[in-house]
Amino acid sequence: MSTKQLNVTLCKSLxxxxxxxxxxxxxxxxxRMWQTVCVADTPENRGMINKIYYxxxxxxx
Length: 61
Prior knowledge:
Elements: E1 5-10, H1 19-27, E2 36-40, H2 43-51, E3 56-60
Antiparallel strand pairs: 1-2, 1-3
């Protein structure tokens, strides 16, 4: 049984953002702009993505 994966790309800078939003990006493994990470499609990761929806692009892998 394989779990769904999501490709998450950071499209806007973390500079000047709320500390909680910066923490969500770091929690997803995003460190720099235009970096793409592959994360599992879990409710926890979806919650972090939803919190910073305006900074990221999401695609199903």
